[in-house]
């Protein structure tokens, strides 16, 4: 694992500070329950629903796209490579996340990040529909 230098730490802090209000705004504007047919299926029991996009004031990114990844109870999104940097929050359910070097559990309200080029895999471990709200950072 690489060590984080001061410039990287500042960039990460600015990114997190800029995205947090966006999550709150989008969550309050679009807090709805999804049905099993909403969005586009990407794996059995896993669907992606586009929520919205906006311009980014972060120099490294031109825009931010918000999507909800909706998991039916027990559904699994297989390992995939991230196309962009992302900030994810769990808006409902409980999940096990597997990365190359670690595995961890998250519940409603928890956040994590995904880096471009890295792999990620998710399983809804709850008995309810689980949702990952993802801010996809589109490079400038």
From TrEMBL:
Q: Is Cytoplasm given among the entry's keywords?
A: no
Q: SUPFAM superfamilies given for it?
A: RmlC-like cupins
Signal sequence interval, chain numbering:
1-29
Coiled-coil region: none
**Signal among keywords:** yes
Name the keywords, alphabetized.
Signal
What name does UniProt use for this protein? Cupin 2 conserved barrel domain-containing protein
């Amino acid at each position: 694992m690489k060590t984080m230098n001061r410039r990287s730490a500042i960039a990460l802090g600015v990114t997190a500070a800029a995205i947090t209000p966006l999550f709150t705004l989008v969550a309050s504007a679009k807090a709805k329950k999804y049905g099993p047919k909403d969005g586009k299926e990407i794996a059995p029991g896993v669907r992606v629903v586009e929520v919205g996009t906006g311009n980014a004031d972060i120099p490294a990114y031109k825009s931010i796209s918000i999507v909800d990844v909706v998991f039916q109870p027990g559904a699994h999104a297989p390992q995939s490579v991230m196309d962009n940097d992302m900030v994810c929050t769990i808006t409902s359910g409980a999940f096990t996340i597997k990365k190359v070097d670690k595995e961890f559990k998250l519940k409603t309200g928890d956040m994590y990040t995904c880096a471009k080029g890295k792999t990620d895999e998710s399983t809804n471990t709850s008995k309810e529909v689980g949702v990952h709200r993802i801010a996809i950072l589109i490079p400038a």
